[in-house]
Structure formats: structure tokens, C-alpha cells
Design brief:
The chain has 331 residues and is α+β, with helices and mostly antiparallel strands. Helices cover 34% and strands 18% of the residues.
Length: 331
């Protein structure tokens, strides 16, 4: 089992196809003849790639990499058959999403399937398939292999995966400084104040000390914007503000795609928290509050929002106010 999450793939172009052909079949590349119809083995490979680390399937190519091409008159029908099959819950469950491409290579047509790594455990035709080297393995009747598959797909383990090619240069030193300043206010003798950035990561269990591999948790907490865009291109947090009355909010009326303000943040989670906090405070009313027996005004809004931030364990927060409502969501 690979300890790494898959690296970003190159776009499916003619040059990419030629590179795949020269590389040959492996754990992430599969060739299929399938010139006239889509064979079951194509779908078995799709399921295996979904359950492992994703991969590319080239139809119209022999096992040795020789391009024979699919029947030009049937190419569009083959693509339609593939799309229909992966959307058929009686064949694939859950439903995967990818779009087959028709690519001309010299005078022949190759159908390319860029199969992403699946977030869940997938099955095809009632069977569970996994990838082992350049082979598709039916693990349905193997309790040990099936258990390993489900453990690998456990969403709670995502942050524990190691990020291939990530190094200390992908970490934001300003975020470490920010964290040290925060803990210094709370505890002037906090151990972090005398630790290097690397030692902080080790103390938090965010890296493997011996191999120096870094986990996704390290990337999410301390990664630079550029590193997050490179290793997690779809990562972002969004704050959306919509104006409505409290009654409309309760009845969920007039809640369309329109919004009155919006912020998109693609920074690490430590930076995201402050950015979203600023966004929330900007739109919520700042009420005057003087605690009993005190002569100093208390910032209820900031205290409340920070309390919500420490309690909420899901990436969606809904705040209801007499004049407005807003939601924060992550994609």
C-alpha cells in the first residue's frame, strides 16, 4: 500500500498519451484493446483505480503499447456507453465522475479515461476491485484485502496520509511565528518558543521524524498558499453573506444563489480562521455589553465567534441574526 496521496496529473493531451505509451502499463496506467465495445475488464480497471490511487486507461491500445485505435464509427457510442455505465447504480456504487476523451493519435482514435482517486470504496457489478501493480484484483472474497481497502478509504485518515514530494520549503514560516506569538501570550514558558519549525511539527505528530515525510495535516495547518494550490488544487474556504429577515431565514425563503458579500480563502487553516472571523465580524451587529460588576465593555461578538470556532467540528457554520444570515462552507 502506498503511503502517499497521488500527485497532480498532467492534462490528457497527445504528448501525455505518447508519454503513457512509452511508459507502459503499471499501477496507474492500463491499456485496453476494446475496439468495438467496452469490455467488462475496462470497468474492472475503473473500479480498481477508483479504489487505489486513480489512473489512466487507454482504449484502442494493445498490452505492449501498440496503438490500433478504436473503430472510428463507434468511438462516440463507446464514450456514451462508458458514461451510462458509470452513472448506472446497478453497476457502479457509489457513482464515480469523470469524462472519457476521444483523442486522435496520427490516424487512429484512442479513448482516454482519466480516472480520479475515489473518496469512497467503490464496487462494480457487486464486486470490489483493487489495483496491485499492473493488475486488477477482485478482493471481494478476501477479508484481509477488503478490510485494508476500507481502512485506506476511511475519511478520518486523510490528514494522516503523507504528501509525496512535500518538503519544508512548502511550509509558511510566518504561520509558525504567528503560532508562537499566540502561545506566548497564553504561556510565556511554552515549549514551542524554544523549538524550531521542524521540532514543532514532530511534537504535534505531523511528520515522520525518521523519513521526514510530511502529512496532509502539516500541509493544511502550516502550508503556503502555493503549496496548497499545488497539492490540493480544489481546496478553499468560502464565506457567503446574504441579507434576509429572520422570518425568511426560519422559513428558508428567498434563499437563492444571490449573495451580498463573499470571501474566498485558499490559505492554511490557521490563516483561514482569522480571515473568516474578520468576515463574520464585518457583517454581524456589534452589541454593547457591560458584564455585571464590571466597568469594562466586553466584546461579545468576538468572544462568541471564537467560541463557535472551537465548538464546530464540521466545515459549515450557519449564523442566524435578526436582519441577516450567512453561511461559511468549505469545498
Amino acid at each position: 500500500m502506498s503511503i502517499f496521496a497521488p500527485a497532480n496529473k498532467k492534462p490528457m493531451t497527445i504528448d501525455t498519451i505518447k508519454e503513457l505509451l512509452s511508459t507502459g502499463e503499471n499501477a496507474a496506467i492500463e491499456f485496453k484493446t476494446s475496439t468495438e465495445k467496452v469490455s467488462h475488464s475496462v470497468y474492472e480497471s475503473v473500479c480498481a483505480f477508483l479504489n487505489r490511487s486513480g489512473g489512466r486507461i487507454l482504449m484502442g491500445v494493445q498490452d505492449d503499447g501498440t496503438v490500433i485505435g478504436v473503430n472510428p464509427e463507434k468511438a462516440d457510442a463507446l464514450i456514451k456507453d462508458i458514461i451510462n455505465a458509470i452513472q448506472n447504480s446497478e453497476l457502479f456504487l457509489p457513482t464515480p465522475f469523470f469524462t472519457p476523451e476521444k483523442i486522435w493519435l496520427d490516424d487512429k482514435i484512442v479513448i482516454a479515461l482519466d480516472v480520479p482517486v475515489g473518496q469512497y470504496v467503490y464496487r462494480y457489478n457487486g464486486r470490489y476491485w483493487d489495483r496491485n501493480g499492473d493488475a486488477d484484483i477482485d478482493v471481494t472474497d478476501s477479508p484481509e484485502l477488503l478490510l485494508a481497502l476500507f481502512e485506506r478509504k476511511n475519511p478520518h485518515l486523510f490528514e494522516e496520509r503523507f504528501v509525496k514530494d512535500m518538503t519544508e520549503k512548502h511550509l509558511d514560516p510566518d504561520t509558525f511565528t504567528y503560532c508562537r506569538n499566540i502561545v506566548k501570550v497564553i504561556n510565556p514558558k511554552h515549549p514551542w518558543l524554544n523549538m524550531s519549525d521542524w521540532d514543532i511539527l514532530v511534537s504535534c505528530g505531523l511528520v515522520d521524524k525518521d523519513s521526514r515525510y510530511m502529512k496532509y495535516a502539516a500541509l493544511l495547518l502550516f502550508g503556503t498558499d502555493e503549496a496548497l494550490a499545488n497539492f490540493m488544487p480544489r481546496y478553499r474556504y468560502e464565506g457567503i453573506f446574504r441579507m434576509c429577515t429572520y422570518g425568511q431565514y426560519e422559513r428558508m425563503e428567498d434563499v437563492s444563489n444571490r449573495y451580498d458579500d463573499r470571501v474566498t480563502v485558499r490559505s492554511n487553516l490557521i490563516r483561514v480562521y482569522d480571515r473568516l472571523l474578520e468576515f463574520i465580524i464585518r457583517h454581524l451587529p456589534d452589541k454593547f455589553y457591560l458584564p455585571a460588576g464590571s466597568v469594562q465593555r466586553q466584546d461579545v461578538l468576538t468572544c462568541s465567534v471564537r467560541s463557535w470556532g472551537t465548538c464546530v467540528s464540521i466545515p459549515t457554520i450557519v449564523l442566524a441574526m435578526p436582519v441577516s444570515w450567512k453561511s461559511i462552507r468549505t469545498v
